[in-house]
User: Fold these one by one.
Assistant:
Number 1:
Amino acid sequence: MSDVFDDRRRALEEEYFKRRDRESLEKLREAMREEARGRGEETATLQCPRCNGRLHESGFDEVRIDRCDKCHGIWLDAGELEHIIAQENAPGRWLRVLWPGRTNE
């Protein structure tokens, strides 16, 4: 019986740290944006881990993904892939795709 509670406790801890990581990353990105605005530049971007291109943010199913302007690679932050998979497996997903704005959800 204690195994169930231990598993649940570990799952809650993992979720907590994932959330903290996402919040920290978002604060870092916002600081980079503010710094770039202060210099009068465009939105600050990160360097692509694969090539020397720059990563630009775009949205996909309420997730901010980073896409390289040279190699067109897509980079996800911690927890974003799980969020996309959860959205794909959500009930009524295909109905919302086919008829956006026509469902009660």
Note: The chain is about 50% helix and 15% strand.
Number 2:
Amino acid sequence: DGRGPKALPREWRRKSYYLRRSVTSTLDLLVGRTELPYRRGGVVTDEALTQLDALGHDGAPFFLFVNYMDAHNPYLPPPPFDTRFPGKARAFDWRKYPFGRTAAGQRDSGISEAARAHLISQYDGGIAYEDAEIGRLFAYLQRTGLYDKTLVMVASDHGESFGARGFLGHGESVYQDQVHMTLLVRYPGQREGRVVEQFVSGVDLAPTIAEVTRCDGLRNVQGHSLLSLSDDAQARELLAEAFPPLVRAPAQQRALFSNGLKFVRSTDGSQELYDLKADPGERRNLFNAGEGRSQRLQARLSEWIRLMPSAAKPVPLDPDAIERLRALGYVR
């Protein structure tokens, strides 16, 4: 499951984990095999249900975070989800498709349509598998009478690119295919659905939880409660950032969202402006250095950057925590 044998002492678990990953990576390069570096959704759901059973159903408050990874590369959904969507290749050579920036400066990566179809079919299969596992979790909450009493949030932390602008994967840019996330919220006792068109952010989840649960410990966090969205929320500004390793991408990027517009600035000097309502695919760069909208968003992004802390204080982490973060791709 990507964590090493539990019977070994912690130090040896850590060493065996990296040894195993090193050997597996070498085999990948030699014969094109790929290890599944995370636990399948079914195992994650089983553990979540075990934790809920241990808590009991006496009405005591609880917080449960469940992290599914099956829509991540190497995209290996289990049957029947691996063939639910057309395009799966009988044999697929991962060595030809390193993730990250595959063709610096290209508008498209040049991967074949067959390869793209395979990747998307398996990615979609992973999402369908995750949907099924979330359904198992919801069924448990309904069966135990917890569903109507529980705040439920389903959120992704990123999107995925399949060749556009030369990118494969995520974390490499601030374009919409990588930063436009899924967010579904069901409030306790909610009976009717609502679609929100305004831009919101992952930082809005904590203040929403605070308002719904009356948790004073989350009162001063950043973001806005989704319960308090109003018509003027369209005027809100949001920021996205991408800082991939320079060996994988030629530039780091920041994007400012404001009134349906998106301004992108890269460390290579390029600047872009998109009207996301008229051009959700970000194909028409409207940036004009002499035009008012471009100048205003340039200035606002510079102001955001100026107000950011120049340096964060280092936080010591337990070696096991670093190992788990590295397995998820958050530490390189």
Note: Helices lie at 10-31, 41-55, 113-143, 176-179, 205-213, 292-307, 319-327.
Number 3:
Amino acid sequence: MKDFRNVHQSDPRFIHLAQQQLKLSDDAQIIEDSLYSLAKRVVQIQSFVTREVGAMEEEMKRSSESIKDRNLAKTGTHQQLAMTSMNNLALMLSDVQQQMQQAMMAGQESGRGKKKGKGKGKGQGKTPGALGQMQQQLNSQMQQLQKSGQSGKALSESLARLAAQQEMLRNAMKELTPSAGQPGGTEGGGKLGNLGKLMEQTETDLVNKRLTEQTMMRQKEILTRLLQAENAANERDLDEKREANRAKELPARIPPSLQKFQDRQKQQTETLRQNLPALTPYYKKQVDAYFKTLGY
């Protein structure tokens, strides 16, 4: 780009620079194929990669056409737009790598926790709560960007990175709860219904460089509904645990051998009471007290 700014159309170097631009377009094909292959395996970034790679390829093609027409102004514009898509892809891949590393560390910590307490934390990390934490971090980044006063290229790169993160969260939510984001979805007691549509509106705002108060209010609603879904899931799990651990009243069962012994003992006691010898009132009172202690 810098070389094209300093070269004249009649300069012999112009042909050499044009050939370099064509070589860059050819070499980019390898990168494009690799990114498309990655996007197929990681569905959360599929639409972002498709959009940005397509834009990069198109702008590089247009820059080559502008070079053929010796239109340096258009050449620089298309090269700059191609660079923007390249930077957006680089930032997205960096964030994905960082999140994957954090997820691996969290998985290792969760595994150690399960060994210490078996049966606890089953399914942890695959709940609306995990998404809620990531959404909260994203909202904080958006607030910081809104107050930072960034502009130009730096602002565009930051907004593109945030849009990619929101898209990844939306796709992760759709995987976790297939009905979320679909019209009439009722997953999570209705807490996640149409939530994907709100996230998609935020992505559109960020791609179009709109970071308004309306956008931030929408982000608060998204976070609130994710937290509500987490609370509903926690209450459901707690109810299931209570129901599973509730004591059941079972009728007392006496072994047959003990029952026979008790019946025989009762019969012997009744026979003894009926055949008591003549006793003085004092001893008769003592005998009655004795039988009462036996439960007769």
Note: Residues 117-126, 179-189 have pLDDT under 50 and may be disordered.
